[in-house]
Amino acid sequence: MTDTLATITQIKNTRAFILELVKDLSIGQLNEIPAGFNNNIIWNIAHLTAAQQNLCYIRSGLAITVSEAHFSPFLSGTKPEKFIEQKEIDSIFDVLLNSMDRLAADYSSGLFLKFDPWDKRYGMKLNSIEDAINFVPFHEGMHIGYIMALKKLV
Questions:
Q1: Which residues contact residue 72 at a Cβ distance below 8 angstroms, ignoring those fewer than 6 apart?
Q2: Digit-coded pLDDT (tens) for 91-126
Q3: Residue 102: which residues within 8 A CB-CB, separation 6 or more?
Q4: Is the dihedral of CA 41, 122, 68, 109 positive or negative?
Q5: pLDDT tens string 46-65
Q6: pLDDT for the residue 51
Q7: What is the pLDDT of residue 64?
Q8: With left for phi above 0 and alpha for psi between -120 and 50, is residue 77 left, alpha or beta?
Q9: Contact indicator for 132, 61 with CB cutoff of 8 Å
Q10: Are 63 and 29 within 8 A, CB to CB?
C-alpha cells in the first residue's frame, strides 16, 4: 500500500509540474490546435484526469469521482469540441490535482475491491488497481511530451 500511495503522490507532483509549465499561457494558447495536431494543451491536461478516472474507477466498477464535464469529453478517442473558457480551465486545473487526493483517500480506505483486467495497447497488462495506478505515470509522461510539443507551437 505504501508504494502505491507514493506513486499517487508522484503523479500529483508531476501534475503540479504540468500546471507550472502552462501557467503563463493565454486562454487562446491553451485552446489552439496547431497544424498537424488533433488536440490542444487544455484537452491533454483534462485528458489526464479522464484517463485516470477510467483506469482506476470505471475498471473497478465504481462511479467516477469527477463531474461528467471533466470525463467523457476528454476520454481517448475524443478531440476538442469547443473553446474552453477561463472558468472551465480553472476547474480542470483544480480537478487535476484534487482527483489525486481523492484517489489516495479511496485507495487507503480499501474502496477498490475488484478490477476488470485490461491489456493496454502499449503491451502492458493491467490486472489490479495497483497496476492501473502504476500505469498512470507512463501515460502522463507521454502527454507531458505532447504538451511540451504543443507549447512550442502556440
A1: 50, 78
A2: 999 999 999 999 999 999 999 999 999 887 777 899
A3: 65
A4: negative
A5: 999 999 999 999 999 999 99
A6: 97
A7: 98
A8: left
A9: no
A10: no
Report yes or no: 51 and 15 within 8 Å, Cβ to Cβ: no
User: How far is residue 68's CA from residue 82's CA, in Å, rounded to a whole number?
Assistant: 16
Percent of the chain with pLDDT over 90: 94
What's the one-letter identity of residue 84? Answer: I
Please give the grid coordinates belonging to residue 45: 491536461
SS (H, E, C) the chain: CHHHHHHHHHHHHHHHHHHHHHCCCCHHHHHCCCCCCCCCHHHHHHHHHHHHHHHHCHHHCCCCCCCHHHCHHHCCCCCCCCCCCHHHHHHHHHHHHHHHHHHHHHHHCCCCCCCCCEECCCCCEECCHHHHHHHHHHHHHHHHHHHHHHHHHC
Q: Give the distance, in angstroms, between the CA of residue 111 and the centroid of all CA atoms in the same chain.
A: 20
Joined grid coordinates for residue 147: 504538451
